Amino acid sequence: MKFVDEATIDIAAGNGGAGCASFRREKFIPFGGPDGGDGGRGGSVYAVADRNLNTLIDYRYARRHEARNGEAGRGSDQFGAAADDIVLRMPVGTIVRDIETEEIIAELLEPGEKVLLAKGGDGGFGNLHFKSSTNRAPRQKTPGWPGEAKKVKLELRVLADVGLLGQPNAGKSTLIAAVSNARPKIADYPFTTLYPNLGVVRVAPEKSFVIADIPGLIEGAAEGAGLGHQFLRHLQRTRLLLHVVDLAPFDPGVDPVAEAKAIVKELKKYDQELHDKPRWLVLNKLDMVQAEERGARVKDFVKRYKWKGPVFEISALTREGCEPLIHAIYEHVAAMRNPVAPDPDPRFDADAPAGSAPVAAPDEPVDPRFAPIAEAPATPAAKPRRTAKKSSTSS
Q: Which end of the chain offers a freer environment for a tag, N or C, measured as fewer CB atoms within 10 Å?
């Protein structure tokens, strides 16, 4: 199946139905009053993230998606029926952007996430809606409101934890085939990979991560050379980049250090945030280097490349060194998935004794809403006044 990661479509929500101006006409009822119903609501257009889709191929050929209009109101107090909504299923990781305003309407990152793209118009009011004690025979009605219509661009960015980066024929497809169940095309000529490949790497039960392989980059990719620049967006959501370098190129005149520096330079030209992502160095095809020369060649490469980050020596063809690599990747990805929780704020600690005042910084005033209520000082009870008894005098 052809991989499509961009598409442009037209979406249009349905218009609301018009209201009805009608009066009740029935035998022996001379003043039936208004009975025109309201119009129905037009259908809306929604986008839903579907985990079973991995391409936008369906929207390459279906360019127009239009919802139905709401029904008009009728007499006898009959309201118009609302139109059904349209649900567009898209792969997880799709970005929906308005072409005219360049505004991002939706970004589908969770499976089953539903987002409104175009709202249907509300139905118009019939004369029954305007009935009142002072207006007993209204003749006004309103038309339905129009639905929204947009031209949007769909852009797919695959959701992967790890992305492979490197020159053509560096062994990226061989690596993803060695550590996962993905089966990309592998051949001995450049640009074998024409579209991104995803693979799930299973480290242990309930321990896995997703790895993405994109076409190789060459010098000038930021200006449009080669194929990799078209798919660099798929690396923007990754948590880790693996820079795969071929230590045994076919052409002895090719310098791996110069090629590695060119890749990093093109990455920085394309997106600074992508360049600043965590990046590990993976030196591949060590099976084609003599065992006694491996250490010296790796040391010379790291020294001339001036690399101070993690370095892994592997052979994707023989799977030598792949196990330590995938375990280190999983530990890094799991740590980023589950960050350490910050220390709890003692001001909002649930275990604090009731009525205690919040702890404030030296220069921070205490919020009077949380200050304890000061008890009034106890006042001594007032002594009862003595009243003099009236003596009775006998006359």
A: C
